[in-house]
Structure formats: C-alpha cells, structure tokens
Amino acid sequence: MKVVVGHLYPDYLNIYADRGNMAVLARRAAWRNIEFDYRVVGFGDSLRPGEHDLLYIGGGQDREQALVAPDLAGRRAELEEAIEGGAAALAVCGGYQLLGQFYRDRSGAELPGAGIFDHYTVAGERRMIGDVLLECELGPDARGTIAGFENHAGRTTLGSNAVPFGRVVAGFGNDGESGFEGCRRGRALGTYLHGPLLPRNPWLADWLLSQSMARRLGEPPPLAPLRDEIESRAHEVASGRAFSRGGRAN
Amino acid sequence: MRAAVLLSVEVTLARLAGRISRLTGAGGGTTLPGKLLARINPDALGSLAERLPLGSAVISATNGKTTTAAMAAEILGRRLRLVHNRAGANLVSGVASALLGRRNADLGLFEVDEAAFPEIARRIRPRAVCLANLFRDQLDRYGELELIAERWRATLAALDPAAYTVLNADDPLVANLGRGRQRVVRFGLDDPGAARERLPHAADSKYCVDCGTPYAYEAAYMGHLGDFRCPACGNARPPLDIAARSISLLDLEGSRFELTTPDGSRTVELALPGLYNVYNALAAATLARVLGATLDEIVAGLGRFRAAFGRFERIQVGDRTVLMLLVKNPAGANEAVRTLVDGGPPSLAILALNDEIADGRDVSWIWDVDFEPLAECLDELVVTGSRADELALRFKYAGLDETRMEIVPDLGRALDRGLELTPPGGELPLLPTYTAMLALHRIAADRGLVRPYWESAA
Ligand SMILES: [Zn+2]
Q1: Domain housing A215
Q2: What is the pLDDT of residue A16?
Q3: Which of B140, B389, B396 sits opposite A129 (nearest CB)?
Q4: Which residue, A6, A121, B384, B409, has fewest beta-carbon neighbours within 10 Å?
Q5: Do B145 and A61 touch (CB under 8 A)?
Q6: Which pLDDT score, from 0 to 100, does residue B36 have?
Q7: Which segments of chain A have a pLDDT < 70?
Q8: Smallest Cβ distance to A230: which of B139, B362, B393?
Q9: Taking Cα atoms as reference points, which of B132, B55, B102 lies closest to residue B457?
Q10: Nearest residue on chain B to A230, alpha-carbon basis
Q11: B164-208: per-residue pLDDT in tens?
C-alpha cells in the first residue's frame, strides 16, 4: 500500500513545526508498512491529476504567505480537481487561510485565496494566541478531542454552507466568537491549530492516513492500532493547558 | 535640584527593596528594585544612565546576547568600571536594577530583550548598539521577525547621530538595518570551509529583503546567517569591517580563529565551542572596538572568557560533570545539537522543556529543531520539565526507540537519574529551556554545587 503526499511550498510555509505533522504521518505509515511517498510541490510545479493521495500546506510569516499567495491562487482548478478526485488534505494556519476566498490584512490589502474552502479571513486588531481544545466528529468511528495551539491575527468567517472542523471547547477558534474552528470539505481539513497538531492527536493523523488511502481503495481502510501511550499523555497535558490558559472570547 | 533629590530618595528605596528580596530569599533582586523604580518614576532609567561618564552600550539579538555582553564585559572590564546586567535580566526593570546596583561606574553595558530594545534605547540613549541576529523565537510572544526588524529600524533612526551601530552583516534582515546609516560597523564570518552544505530545515529570512527571491549562499554558516546574494536584484551581504577567518572548531573544548580588523589580524583562542560562539566573540570584539578597546585587549579578553550562566556552563558534581546548554529556539537548539554531536557524539543526555512565558507557551518550536543527529547517537535520553511528554514525542518521531527514553517530569529527579546513568569521570549534557535552566541552577545552588545566580552576577 502506498500514500503519495504533496507538500505545498515547504520552503516558504514551514513555521510552527509543519515538519512535525509530516514526520508523524511518515512514521505512522511506516509502522504499518504503508509506503509514504513524499513529494514537494514548489513554485511552478504542476499538480498532475490523480498524482496525490494527500495534500499538505502549512503556515508562514506574513511575508512568505504574500510570496506564495498568487501562485497558490493560480492553482484553483488543479486543487479543485485533486479534492474532487478524492485526495485528502490538511491545511494549517496560513495555509488554511490561503485555501479560502481571500485574506484581507490590516491595511485593507487582499491576498487572493485558492477558494477550496468556503470562507474568508480578515485581520483583526489583536492576535488570538493560546492553547486550544476542540471536539471533532469526522465520522461515526472518528470522533474525539483535538488539543493544539493557535496564533493568528486573522478572523475567519465560514460561508453559510461551510462545515467547521470542530467545536471550540477552550480557546478562540476561527474568529473568537462563533465557537467553531477550522473548516472541512469531505476529506480536506483546514485548521488554525498549528505545529504539533498530529503528534498529540494521533487519531486525527490516522484518520488522514486512512482517508488518503480511500482514493485508491474506494473506502478508507482500518489501520492497525499503535501504542500511543506518550501521545495520550501529551494530549492530556495540552488539553489541561487549554482549559487553564486557552484564549477566551469576550 | 528637586528632581535630583527625589530621584535619590527613589533610588534608595528601590535599592532597599533589592536587599530585602535577597535577604528573604525571594530571589536575586535582579529585577525587583528596577520594577519598583520604574513604577515610581519611569524617567529614572534615563536619569541614571545619564550619570555614566562614558555612556552606555546596548546589545540585542535573538541568540547569544547574554554571552556577547559577558564577553564584551570581559574585554572592557579590566580598564573600565562597568555596570552590566549580567544575570540576563534584560527588560527595562533589569537594566534599571543594574544601574541601581552599581554606583560610580564608567560605562553601562546592557544586553536587552529584542522587544524591549526600542524602549530601553529611547530611555538610555546609548552611544553604541550591537544588533547580532534575528531568528524565529517564541512567536506567541515576540511576533514575526519582520515586525521586530521594523521596530529596530525605527529605534535606530531615533538614535544620536554620533552613536555607533554594530551589525551582523551575515544576517540579511539585520544587515539591511545599516542602509543609509552613518557610523555602521559590520562583522561576519569569512571562511567558506566552516560553512554547512545547505540551510537547515527551518531557516528564516532566506528571501531577498528587496524582491523576495530566495538568496543564493556563497556560504551558509548558521541558520540563515551567511554570505548571501540575491540572484535577481543583487542585494548582497555588505563588505565586512571585522571578520573571522581560518576558523577551527576544537570539539567541545573551544575554537580558534583569525580576527581580522582594520588594525591588523590576530589569533583568538576561545574556550567555548561552536560556530555560534565565534559569532558571539565577533560581535563582542566589534562592539568593544567601537567603545575604544585595543586589539590586544580584545584578544586577551576573549581568551580569558569562560561560559556565561547556563550557556555552555560546566558544573562539577563529585566526579561527574554536567554540561549545561541553554536552548530556547530552533536556531539556538540546532547549534547546540550540532556542537554536541560534532564534539564527540554523546550516548546520554537530559533535555528539559518548560512552557512558562519565558520559555514560550507554544512548544511547537521543538518540532523545528533538527534533533535527528542527536537521536541517532543516544543510547539513553532523560526528558524532563512540565512538557516532558511533548519532548518524548519529538524524539519518538525522530526515530529514538521508546525504550531508550525515560520521562521524569521533576527536574531534580531527572538530574539525579541522569547523573546515575553517567559513568564516573563522565560528562552529562543537559539542554534546558530558560525557566528549566533557572530551576536547575537553583537545585545546583541548593546542593552547594554553584553559587546562586545573583551572587555570580554581582
Ligand atoms: Zn532581490
């Protein structure tokens, strides 16, 4: 079995440990003898139809995001084709913003989005920084809590038909008001929870792996369980942080 | 007159607070007097600094500012009476406390936090500033690099035109701050033999400040520091005024390099290992030079220098040695790992991760560190601190088998366990984040192994 992963602009969007998410997917695939074929998608590289089972796009600083945005927005059709063709996707922080309709900064200038998710983002006065805990239900057998960290000035507003990734238990989420976090479109997820999102939420990592394989297999295969003892403890500690000091909307 | 009398009353009060803080064991009194003074009279910092006959110099950077300031103090301290915030108390309160704690000094020498640099510089009006590097660090607290650089630029623009600006020419964002300025002195490395083959994973500022094209590196030395040039528009590293050439890294024992200045070249022997300490030494040498130090004083001072608090500090515990290397962000941790592994791969280490404000509450940065070379050589790893599990995960996904890791959240117990695993005569590398480093130092002080930090800072 094989999963082909396309990592978009890893040289530009790599802040907050996006590499960690990739390392977790690669190891968890290897532990189950799933071949993890990692490919970089940089400026000008085309996304060939049907090439990727999983697309990943991370976050960057403002400057890097501005450098990447036009190229990414130009990929609208090929991204749309990949997602419609059954590829799974994970977009984190800046990458999540850039897959929406647009990002408007404090000066009013707009970065174009790739329009994969039905949302738009407007920079706010104050950054929303802190630990977060979410409740997510991605399927009958895929539900649980997600513990992470957010750091974003952008307030993301979901379109009327958009489905959020999760419900905020503690922290800010998309806009600090709606109680929702992230966006989901089938097997494609977008979220503000950056960095070690997958290490301490192994069930989400496995959901993504399984969904990635669904494209070739027709449906997501069950994965052999792993010993996730350290993962659970890290999840517990991070959840506690979200309760004790996660962001509060007011 | 009235203002002067008032200030002296306030100063007395604040000094008293420091003494009480030390006597009651509440802490080193390294920031309390300053906090109190700042509360009573926010202008006091400027008034106190104004009394220094030779003025002040300020050092800021993401990495190495404590070591650089301590090196500069070693160079200048034989000839001048210095006031220096040696314990790393580098916010407004720490600088104010240092000024309160030392009367009759000639020159102020302050390391300052990147975010506090604008306010401190505005108040104390330094005659020289040294800006050494900008790396991603605690984005939850400092924000993005470009933003810090912009604030630094505005601060420089408001300095006395006669003030010197010492800049690291190898850091594109920092080098760029010298454009259009007078009295800029630039330092950098000039030894392609010491370069890395490629940029590390999480290199920052690797795109041209003018046009956004990725820089081509003639030599990449550390993180994004190096001899850079934009292939599109020609923006490039400016010429070096002070350079390090013929660098030899001598395992964990130290390093040697040729210090090249307009006054001539001399060999510097440094008792600290790693390329990052060559950068620190260059920054200190360049700053000391604009403050009037001779080449002889610089070479001798750097030769005498031993580690600053917690930064490559060796602590003797019976017949074993603890080697403490503070780690606080990806670039610094990468260099610590590289120095350790190049210096003879360790088979045992302790890593400590806390998530207090001073450490960064967001621990995602550990995933940007290239820990893999360390994971490869370790037979045993003790992880500790309030986020010990997170560190264990990082090493698990770096390929270290779970059976080789011990998770001991309590710092004191972890230290004991590490020492137990260390053979007699052996050296135990200990890599803590900031508050873990302070706590471990306190534990070592309680055991009589080191002097409390406020004493060593006196
Ligand atoms: Zn350029």
Answers
A1: 2-243
A2: 73
A3: B140
A4: B409
A5: yes
A6: 73
A7: 195, 249-250
A8: B393
A9: B102
A10: B389
A11: 999 999 999 999 999 999 999 999 999 999 888 777 666 677 889
In a domain, A65, yes or no: yes
How high is the pLDDT of residue B7?
65
Q: Which stretches of chain A sit within 8 Å of chain B by CB?
A: 11-12, 14-17, 19-20, 23-24, 27, 61-64, 67, 127, 129-131, 149, 151, 194-196, 199-200, 227, 230-231, 233-234, 237-238, 241, 245
pLDDT digits (tens, 9 = 90+) for B152-161: 999 999 999 9
Within a 13 Å sphere around the CA of A46, how many CA atoms are in the beta-carbon half? Answer: 6
Number of domains chain A contains: 1
Cα nearest neighbour of B203 on chain A: A11
Q: Which of B243, B247, B265 is nearest to B256 (CA)?
A: B247
Three-state DSSP state, B281: helix
Which tokens sit at B284? 């200190």
Q: Which two tokens stand for residue B237?
A: 């590293």
Angle (CA) B13-B52-B157 rounded to 5° is: 110
Query: Coil, strand, or helix at residue B398?
Result: coil
Please give the distance, rounded to the nearest whole angstrom, from the Cα atom of residue B368 to the centre of ligand 1. 26
pTM of the model: 0.87
Which helix or strand (DSSP H or E) is residue B325 part of?
Answer: strand B320-325
Could you report the per-residue pLDDT of B203-253, keeping only the tens digit for each?
677 889 899 898 999 999 998 999 999 999 999 999 999 999 999 998 888
Distance from residue B148's CA to the centre of ligand 1 (Å): 21
Kindly give the pairing relationship between strand A88-92 and strand A110-112: unpaired
Q: Are B233 and B258 in contact (CB under 8 A)?
A: no
Distance B210 CA to ligand 1 centre (A): 5
pLDDT at B458: 33
CATH code of A6's domain: 3.40.50.880
Closest CA to A201 of A140, A132, A127: A132
Whether residue A14 is contained in a domain is answered as: yes
Look at residue B24 and tell me whether its pLDDT is greater than 60.
Answer: no
pLDDT in tens, B132-150: 999 988 776 667 788 899 9
Q: Could you tell me the two tokens for B232? A: 């599109």
Instruction: Please indicate whether, in this complex, the C-beta atoms of B140 and A149 are within 8 angstroms of each other.
Output: yes
**CB burial readout A6-25, b (16+ within 10 A) else e:** bbbbbbbbbbbbbbbbbbbb
Q: Tell me the nearest-neighbour CA distance from B64 into chain A, angstroms.
A: 22
Q: So what's the pLDDT on residue B453?
A: 57
Write down the pLDDT at residue B202. Answer: 61
Query: Which one-letter amino acid corresponds to residue B395?
Result: F
| Six-digit token string for B114 | 């990147």
Q: Which pLDDT does position A73 carry in this prediction?
A: 95
Which residues are CB-contacts of B147 (< 8 A; sequence separation ≥ 6)? Answer: none
Q: How far is the CA of A114 from the centre of ligand 1 (A)?
A: 26
B344 to chain A, closest Cα gap in Å: 27
* Token pair in block for residue B360: 């960064």
- Pick B387's closest partner by Cβ from A16, A227, A237: A237
Please tell me if residue B115 touches chain A, with a CB cutoff of 8 Å.
no
Using CB atoms, pick whichever of A129, A195, A234 lies closest to residue B364.
Answer: A195
Residue A250 lies in a domain: no
Structure tokens at A198: 């997958």
Structural domains of chain B sorted by starting position, each given as residue range(s) with its CATH number in brackets: 28-304 (3.40.1190.10), 311-456 (3.90.190.20)
Cβ pair B367:A19 closer than 8 A: yes
Nearest residue on chain B to A202, alpha-carbon basis: B393
- Residue A105 included in any domain: yes
User: Which residue has tokens 């890791």?
Assistant: B405
